[in-house]
Amino acid sequence: MTLTPRTRLIVAMDMLEREKALKVAANLEGMVDAYKINYPLVLSCGMEIVTEIAKFGPVICDFKIADIDNTSRLIVEQVVKAGASGVIIHAFVGMDSMEACIKAADGIDVYVVAEMSHPGAKWFIKPVADVMARRAFDVGATGIIAPATRPERISQLRVIVEDLLILSPGVGAQGGSAKATIDAGADFIIVGRSIYNAEDPKAAAMEILKSLE
Ligand code: BMP
User: Fold this and answer.
1) Residue identifier of the C-alpha nearest atom 17 of ligand 1
2) Dihedral through CA 11, CA 24, CA 16, CA 8, nearest 10?
3) Beta strands in 57-202 (DSSP E)
4) How far does residue 104's CA lie from ligand 1's centre (Å)?
5) pLDDT tens digit string along 75-117?
6) Is the CATH number 3.40.50.2300 carried by domain 9-207?
7) pLDDT per residue as tens digits for the range 131-183
8) Which residues sit with their C-beta closer than 6 Å to ligand 1?
9) What is the pTM of this model?
10) 11 alpha carbon to ligand 1 midpoint, in Å?
């Protein structure tokens, strides 16, 4: 069930209100390749929101799972049950936890965080990101998360993960450029605030897509 790059845009749905989430999801139907749902929306609205948004397109549950294998498995089972098409997990917990996630994913996509986009990632994550990416490849993940804020790192990580998918957050509000991110080798850009906080989210998404042409 690997995500297919069509528009290459994934919208991060970090708003808290169900009505707003459903409105944005409906507005962007067909313009985005996936909806990424993180804890804020699920903690505010419940897991049903995953099922509701999945009616508009593939949903990736960005739960950045980082736990022992048994707990990780239980979380992924809930993601699958809700009808998501993918889940995001951490690599640093080890191969056993990642393997448990992939097994429990039962064919839905599993993306592994290789390197995060925020400045704080330079302290601990960036120095070990190449190893994380290699482990993601070894374990059979669908793809990795790499920073749009550091496009040169996307190019370096691309060499390690070969043809795995690369999903890159950090475009817009965090300063990354959509075009530079795709040119560096990412398959998808992940954009949140620049779209859902815009007066007209559809126009904002359109503007981003135009910049990729
Ligand atoms: P925004 O475009 O508003 O900065 O949102 C980016 C989204 O991607 C958020 O949901 C954030 O949690 C996620 N994200 C990120 O920004 N950097 C990472 O390294 C990994 C992420 O999942």
Assistant:
1) 117
2) 0
3) 59-65, 86-90, 109-113, 143-145, 165-169, 188-191
4) 24
5) 999 999 999 999 999 999 999 999 999 999 999 999 999 999 9
6) no
7) 999 999 999 999 999 999 999 999 999 999 999 999 999 999 999 999 999 99
8) 12, 14, 38, 62, 116-117, 145, 147, 169-170, 172-174, 190-194
9) 0.98
10) 10
